[in-house]
Amino acid sequence: MKVTVFGIGYVGLVQAAVLAEVGHDVMCIDVDETKVENLKKGNIPIYEPGLTPLVTKNYEEGRLNFSTDARLGVEHGTMQFIAVGTPPDEDGSADLKYVLAVARTIAQHMTSHKVVLDKSTVPVGTAEKVRAAMDETLKSRGVEIPFDVVSNPEFLKEGAAVADCKRPERIVVGTDNEEVVDLLRELYEPFNRNHDRMILMDIRSAELTKYAANCMLATKISFMNEIANLAEHLGADIEKVRQGIGSDSRIGYHFIYAGCGYGGSCFPKDVQALIRTAQQIGYEPRLLRAVEDINDDQKQKLPQYIARHFGEDLKGKTFALWGLSFKPNTDDMREASSRVLMEELWKRGATVQAYDPEAMDETQRIYGHRDDLRLMGTKEAALHKADALIICTEWQSFRAPDLEFIQQTLNQPVIFDGRNLFDPDRLSRRGFTYYAIGRGASL
Ligand code: NAD
């Protein structure tokens, strides 16, 4: 099938590459000329495991193309995906300006029936706004061309995006037109062989499903962080509690790790956007507010431990920081806990020696050159002459470090672990002062 994807970000690029891989003919359109030129040269703008070979192969074989020419994109696909960003507006609601701009562009250039699929995360009622924007543009052109608007939210996880798109757990389709379902079945057939993963519903339910999913996941994290804060004061160990509750099949082990807060481009903004939606209809979203508040506080947890150990004034202190991305296997630093931490440390006069397997360029892009940030080539180099080690992201390569080397290299054997990677008893036996999240039994 001929497919066009507007927006070559984490969602658009991965989805486009995976659709091309199964044989669809995919044209990607972005307003960012540099990004498009780089992609044509084989320079992939983001880090996702398995993405570079997939993009390169499908581009070379001609099934995946990149352009800034929106007219070309509209002509190309019967299926027109919108996968542009929906960043938070000033009041926390999702800013739809990019989504609606694409809708108008499609209507501006279309000459035949198009199916417009909304992959961006958008508030309930957006499909109606997309339809209205397209109707208005078509009217101003003085033409009547039929089109459908479908809600087809994306559930990929950054860090496992390619695998998730190749084997989606579900394909949510919100539509009010039965005839479109056939086209979508054809589009997604290669991903739907083992069993039917397509969940059909009305458009508003599909739009709400995406927010409900992300808010549920954020709630699980904030719930565990609340219990971790209790555990810390009650002399209990959240890691033991986690295993104790995870063994209940109604709860399960997934996504119940306490830590230094969730980040990323989705959870914080989607929780905020659903809060805003609730307020707009006069409903007070008490639980969602608590989820957000707990998370904001949780990002202050490591700075608080550091103040407890070193005092508030950190002038002259240097901290080794392992992990900058908001989670492992990505270079994405949007809303990352590491950013809150570094900014707190800098405010108090400290220097940060940071290492991340993938997010070094992104850190440089965000913070530029500053005297109190040293980007180090290896995790070992980051330890050199530092007063303590801080861990913000649970990359695999941080999980079994050479403790002896850490002890010898740091000025003092102190670790602040925002991801509960180590056994507190073992670290204490080895002479470390170890701060972790909600492990009061060991503090
Ligand atoms: P992103 O910021 O990585 O990419 C968005 C791209 O859209 C950018 O390259 C930008 O230049 C481009 N763009 C903006 N306006 C455009 C226009 N008029 N025409 C063409 N391109 C345009 O965003 P992302 O992380 O891929 O997220 C996209 C959407 O998907 C958001 O709504 C997000 O909430 C949702 N989502 C993201 C994830 C994730 O893990 N990142 C997962 C599921 C859903």
UniProtKB/TrEMBL annotation:
Cell inner membrane recorded as keyword: no
UniProt catalytic activity: UDP-alpha-D-glucose + 2 NAD(+) + H2O = UDP-alpha-D-glucuronate + 2 NADH + 3 H(+)
Pathway linked to the protein: Nucleotide-sugar biosynthesis; UDP-alpha-D-glucuronate biosynthesis; UDP-alpha-D-glucuronate from UDP-alpha-D-glucose: step 1/1
Segments passing through the bilayer: none
EC number: 1.1.1.22
Residue sites binding NAD(+) per the record: D30, K35, T86, T121, E158, K269, R334
Domain UDP-glucose/GDP-mannose dehydrogenase C-terminal: 320-424
Record: active site: C266
Swiss-Prot/TrEMBL GO biological process terms: polysaccharide biosynthetic process; UDP-glucuronate biosynthetic process
Organism domain of life: Bacteria
SUPFAM superfamilies linked to this entry: 6-phosphogluconate dehydrogenase C-terminal domain-like, NAD(P)-binding Rossmann-fold domains, UDP-glucose/GDP-mannose dehydrogenase C-terminal domain
Binding locations of substrate: F155, L156, K157, E158, K210, F255, I256, Y257, A258, G259, G263, K327
Entry keyword NAD: yes
SMART domains found in the cross-reference section: UDPG_MGDP_dh_C (SM00984)
Pfam families to which the protein is assigned, alphabetical: UDPG_MGDP_dh, UDPG_MGDP_dh_C, UDPG_MGDP_dh_N
UniProt-listed NCBIfam families: NDP-sugDHase (TIGR03026)
Entries under PANTHER family matching the protein: UDP-GLUCOSE 6-DEHYDROGENASE TUAD
Family statement drawn from the similarity comment of this UniProt entry: Belongs to the UDP-glucose/GDP-mannose dehydrogenase family.
Protein name as annotated: UDP-glucose 6-dehydrogenase
Organism: Jejubacter calystegiae
